[in-house]
């Protein structure tokens, strides 16, 4: 089994030395995270889990993912403004999913009262895999789009220098120079500052809404520091704080502890367990206010798997992006197969299809945060044996993607240091700011590459920060239906005008 960094990975003495170099580089760059044992304090931190060496990513697919992101930003924003589409698409889900039902009730309440918010701020992350097709080509396919708590922008900003240092120490200075600059948090801060400015009150603050467990607090502390440098104050509050001390004035301006709130940034609120009864009341208070929500409840609903499924149907993109055929083509090219499980003939047929061939699909719940998907025999078990069919009617069925595997070491404090077969997932971050009907800002702002061991794909959620190393081509040798993992035929990079590639390799991965 061969690969791009084999000269390093197959030399244990080099690996042992460079692992410590990499860990120290991560600590020096501030790529740190609070510990699971003490998630609410920064007195004890450790390096954020990461892959030892940057992973090969097809250059064309990387740029394809970046190019399509403003289209997805626009699509999400337009969907969030279409009440009838959200209602028609989510009605069946809301009947059997209490969480979606509660969010939709808040949405309807706000619409009935009248939306006070004028400026809208979106921070989205679209996640992709590099899927191996039956003909050997590698294509970009979207897994999901995250419209709430789309994190890791600050952490991704710290990884480039870590990998550059590692490659330099390995004597790979030319390769180190090819790593792309990546600073999502700077552009995200610019978008927050623009929204805050359009709100129109220099006394108002940005409020980040956090959960009771704040293991990832250091990720958004970098955003906070950038806003403070612009003299924009950020405060941290919980739903419980708002339940006790928040209020609206006669103009529906939101206040807490004497602070007028211009922007509410949700870093919690995407899971049912994030809410108690009084927390739902606090969420309603926020949504009724004039404050800029990132996201507002309609945008959170627009990011559900059910909406993603409906958008993949023929003719639906044209409803929102009429007159934009290039945007439609770019978006549609990233769609994987998505299938409804709603009550009725279509849902029954799709469920039967999944029961016959469960290994071909992923069963997705309407939940965020990872670890909520079902695979293989678990799909068959759920669809056949559930006492209440309504338990899975709110789920979405999706074609199972098969990305090419690579080899790498996955570094985590206290983890085992073994060479593992891994797959990668590319996230593209983007922001938009809309005032009334005018789109003020719409751009992709950076990327996040995350890697996991193939042994963790089914049921596991542990992901490691990574860095894309762009290559010119990546062709799969085999297809998953052949019983083998897809591999690579040849990767070439650093070539132009007929020059010989600086590195090329041939890989084959087997079960």
Explained architecture:
- By secondary structure, the protein is of the alpha+beta class.
- It is built from 19 helices and 23 strands.
- The strands form six sheets. Strands 3, 5, 6, 17, 18, 19 and 20 form a seven-stranded antiparallel sheet that branches. Strands 7, 8, 9, 10, 11 and 12 form a six-stranded mixed sheet that branches.
- Strand 14 (361-364) and strand 15 (373-375) form a beta hairpin.
- Helix 2 runs antiparallel to helix 7 (159-169) and helix 17 packs across helix 18 (376-385).
- 44% of the residues are buried.
- The model is unreliable at 478-511 (pLDDT under 50).
Q: Tell me the distance between the termini.
A: 12 Å
Count of discrete alpha- or pi-helical segments spanning 4 or more residues: 19
Percent helix range = 25-40%
User: Which range does the strand content fall in?
Assistant: 25-35%
According to DSSP, the number of beta strands is 23
Radius of gyration, in angstroms, nearest whole number? 23 Å
Helix and strand composition category: alpha+beta
Q: How is the main sheet built? A: 7 strands, antiparallel
């Amino acid at each position: 089994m061969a690969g791009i960094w084999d000269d390093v990975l197959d030399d244990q003495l080099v690996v042992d030395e460079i692992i410590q170099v990499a860990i120290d580089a991560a600590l020096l760059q501030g790529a740190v995270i609070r510990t699971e044992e003490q998630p609410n304090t920064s007195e004890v931190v450790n390096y954020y889990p990461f892959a030892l060496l940057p992973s090969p990513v097809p250059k064309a697919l990387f740029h394809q993912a970046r190019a399509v992101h403003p289209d997805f930003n626009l699509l999400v924003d337009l969907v969030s403004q279409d009440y009838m589409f959200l209602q028609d698409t989510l009605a069946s889900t809301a009947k059997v999913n209490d969480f979606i039902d509660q969010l939709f009730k808040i949405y309807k309440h706000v619409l009935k009262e009248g939306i006070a918010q004028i400026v809208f701020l979106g921070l989205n992350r679209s996640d992709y895999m590099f899927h191996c097709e039956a003909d050997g080509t590698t294509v970009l396919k979207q897994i999901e789009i995250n419209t709430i708590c789309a994190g890791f922008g600050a952490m991704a900003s710290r990884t480039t220098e870590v990998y550059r240092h590692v490659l330099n120490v390995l004597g790979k200075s030319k390769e180190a120079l090819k790593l792309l600059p990546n600073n999502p948090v700077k552009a995200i801060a610019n978008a927050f500052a623009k929204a805050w400015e359009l709100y129109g009150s220099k006394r108002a603050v940005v409020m980040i809404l956090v959960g009771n467990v704040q293991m990832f607090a250091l990720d958004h502390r970098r955003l906070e520091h950038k806003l403070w440098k612009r003299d924009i104050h950020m405060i941290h509050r919980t739903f419980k704080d708002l339940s006790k001390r928040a209020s609206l004035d006669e103009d529906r301006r939101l206040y807490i502890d004497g602070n007028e709130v211009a922007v509410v940034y949700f870093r919690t609120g995407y899971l049912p367990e994030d809410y108690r009864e009084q927390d739902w009341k606090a969420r309603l208070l926020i949504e009724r206010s004039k404050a800029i929500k990132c996201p507002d409840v309609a945008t959170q609903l627009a990011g559900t798997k059910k909406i993603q499924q409906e958008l993949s149907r023929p003719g639906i993109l044209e409803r929102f992006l009429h007159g934009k055929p290039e945007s439609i083509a770019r978006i549609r090219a990233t769609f994987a197969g998505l299938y409804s499980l709603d009550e009725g003939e279509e849902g029954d047929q799709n469920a039967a299809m999944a029961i016959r061939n469960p290994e071909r699909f992923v069963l997705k719940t309407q939940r965020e945060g990872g670890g909520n998907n079902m695979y293989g025999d678990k799909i068959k078990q759920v669809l056949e044996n559930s006492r209440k069919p309504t338990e899975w009617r709110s789920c979405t069925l999706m074609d199972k993607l098969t990305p090419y595997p690579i080899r790498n070491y996955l570094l985590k404090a206290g983890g085992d240091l073994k060479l593992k077969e891994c797959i990668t997932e590319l996230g593209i971050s983007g922001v938009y700011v809309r005032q009334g009907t005018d789109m003020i800002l719409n751009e992709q702002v950076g990327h996040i590459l995350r890697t996991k061991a193939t042994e963790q794909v089914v049921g596991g959620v542990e992901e490691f920060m990574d860095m894309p190393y762009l290559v010119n081509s990546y062709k799969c040798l085999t297809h998953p239906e052949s019983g083998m993992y897809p591999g690579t035929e040849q990767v070439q990079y650093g070539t132009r005008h007929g020059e010989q590639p600086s590195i090329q390799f041939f890989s084959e991965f087997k079960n």
